[in-house]
Amino acid sequence: MKLQLINKRAIVTGGASGIGEAIAKTFLDNGAKVIVVDLPGKDVSDIYKSFENAYVIEQDITLAGASDNIIEEAVSFLGGLDILVNNAGIAMPSSLETTTDELWDKVMGLNVGSMFKISRAALPYLKKSGAGRIINLGSIMSDVGGPDLFVYGISKHAVAGMTKSMSVDLGQFGITANYLQPGAIVTALSAPFFADPAFKKYWEDKTPVGRLGLPHDVAVAALFLATDAAQFISGVGLNVDGGAIIKF
Fold it and tell me: pLDDT tens across 12-36, in order?
């Protein structure tokens, strides 16, 4: 079975860079029509101008009513919806002691709250699909804890729990819900951290395959979960970490 998405209609949030951009472009390369959502001012349209089946929505998904507006505009363009990839998120260092109310609200609001709201708004259209897919971006921190990642780690544990609950609720409608658990992935945002030789070596030594991950590594995992090949997989966290979680 070929991993293709011919005529499938997808939304990818946080698609202006990194993992989200890789997922959106991989879906487009494999036949999908894709709505790419990201913040205003990121020149998202320029990133996708060579893809005739890409449509860009510049919207802060944490704003009141944003999820409903995004889904309404997306479905108007696509004519329906088959796949929702909840990739938008933020990582900010913190401990229990240093986590302010404002930081908690910012990280949980984007990483968890917006994921819930846009999934709820998308549900009527995913039901009509008959083979809907929800793919949420978790982290290896969905399973473990990490230093100075207090609220981020909590948010990713919440993603895991929410996705499992989604899978139970939505299976009756032919909808699967799964989450990806990336490890050390080099993106434009994370590259400065990996520029530190000690930090880079730490993650290379922790990863049995001996290298850092790339956004494409996560994108092909998302592609698999979005296709008919994964129709009997739901409620699962798929590690895309080169085996790093085994060595925690």
Answer: 999 999 999 999 999 999 999 999 9
